[in-house]
């Protein structure tokens, strides 16, 4: 399985990269985001939302587990950090197999509920504003996406 890397030197670069990816996404796509607090998961998701033509302000769903936004496709932005039991059935599969795009922050906490095919992304601090993104495509659809935006 191939791993892709991309580096950003600012939140604006991160947002532009995510917007480009968002414009290529289709219904049923699932992206997972891992990274320390403040690494840029929400900044990335805001850019992705722009690519999905979402006009509303996007912010972290930390205390609500999920927020839904309407655009070219619905965006289901999940933050599962506060999920108590990884096996608790919260109906995520309905969203993973639904008509929108899912972004799951702290996805490792519900690993057994995630679809087999997805785009796994980890964000690492490089400096105060610089970040390194590691993308691991799980499935041909996501391999193609990575090739298109990073090839």
What is the spatial order of strands in the main beta sheet? 1-7-6-2-5-4-3
Instruction: Give the helix/strand class.
Output: alpha/beta
Shape: globular
Radius of gyration: 14 Å
Given the structure, what is the number of helices? 4
What proportion strand?
Answer: 25-35%
In short:
Helix content is 27%, strand content 27%. It has 151 residues and is α/β, with parallel strands linked by helices. Strands 1-7-6-2-5-4-3 form a seven-stranded mixed beta sheet.
Describe the structure.
Strands 1-7-6-2-5-4-3 form a seven-stranded mixed sheet. 27% of the residues lie in helices and 27% in strands. The mean pLDDT is 88. With 151 residues, it is an alpha/beta fold. It starts with a strand and ends with a helix. It contains four helices and seven strands; from the N terminus they run βαβαββαβββα.
Helix and strand arrangement:
Blueprint: E1 4-8, H1 11-24, E2 30-35, H2 41-51, E3 66-69, E4 75-79, H3 92-96, E5 101-105, E6 118-125, E7 131-138, H4 140-150
Parallel strand pairs: 2-5, 2-6, 4-5
Antiparallel strand pairs: 1-7, 3-4, 6-7
Write a concise keyword list for the protein shown above:
27% strand, alpha/beta, 7-stranded mixed β-sheet, 4 helices
């Amino acid at each position: 399985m191939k791993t892709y890397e991309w580096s950003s030197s600012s939140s604006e670069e991160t947002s532009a990269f995510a917007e480009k990816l968002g414009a290529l996404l289709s219904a049923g796509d699932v992206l997972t985001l891992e990274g320390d607090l403040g690494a840029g998961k929400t900044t990335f998701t805001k850019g992705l939302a722009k690519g999905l033509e979402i006009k509303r302000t996007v912010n972290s769903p930390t205390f609500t587990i999920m927020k839904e936004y309407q655009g070219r496709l619905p965006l289901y932005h999940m933050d599962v950090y506060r999920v108590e039991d990884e096996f608790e059935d919260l109906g995520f599969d309905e969203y993973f197999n639904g008509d929108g795009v899912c972004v799951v922050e702290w996805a490792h906490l519900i690993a057994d509920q995630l679809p087999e095919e997805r785009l796994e992304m980890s964000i690492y601090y490089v400096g105060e504003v610089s970040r390194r993104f590691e993308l691991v495509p799980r499935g041909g659809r996501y391999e193609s996406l990575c090739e298109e935006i990073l090839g």
